[in-house]
């Protein structure tokens, strides 16, 4: 007898069966991309603060150096979470949602400094939240 596997089915073989989900593979990849974008944003804020459209006094809450460290830290953690999502870790899904919300809110504050980049990252964060919450609870990427 042969076993046919398809999207959304359970895996046959040793170990416990689990659901597969293309959404989680997409979410893991998207978390890696958003994390890389945030790392790039952080490095630019740290090393080239004259790159942004407004002065340091016009940005909400912090100066560019502080935002650079914030984006760098969030980006590195998002990359690690993306790898966790791709390996099927539930903690990574929950952390991914929380980090996507934080990044989206942070990019709202950063919107005046770099509007197109921030709108793009906010849209990707919303898509990431959906991709992490849409699959069934026991699904793996």
Any overview of this molecule?
The chain has 141 residues and is mainly α. The protein has one domain. Helices cover 62% and strands 3% of the residues. It contains four helices and two strands; from the N terminus they run E-H-H-H-H-E. The protein has helices at 22-47, 64-86, 90-109, 115-133, and strands at 19-20, 139-140. It has a two-stranded parallel ribbon. The protein is elongated. It starts with 18 loop residues before the first strand and ends with a strand. The relative contact order is 0.20.
Question: What's the arrangement of strands in the largest beta sheet?
Answer: 1-2
Provide the structure class. mainly alpha
* Global outline: elongated
**Radius of gyration from the CA trace?**
18 Å
Instruction: Tell me the number of helical segments per DSSP (H or I, 4 or more residues long).
Output: 4
How many beta-strand segments? 2
* Share of β-strand residues: under 5%
Tally of structural domains? 1
Largest sheet, in brief, is:
2 strands, parallel
Write the H/E string, N to C. Answer: EHHHHE
> Uncertain segments of ≥5 residues (pLDDT<50)?
1-6
Percent of residues in helical segments?
55-70%
Name the average pLDDT.
Answer: 81
Distance between the termini: 26 Å
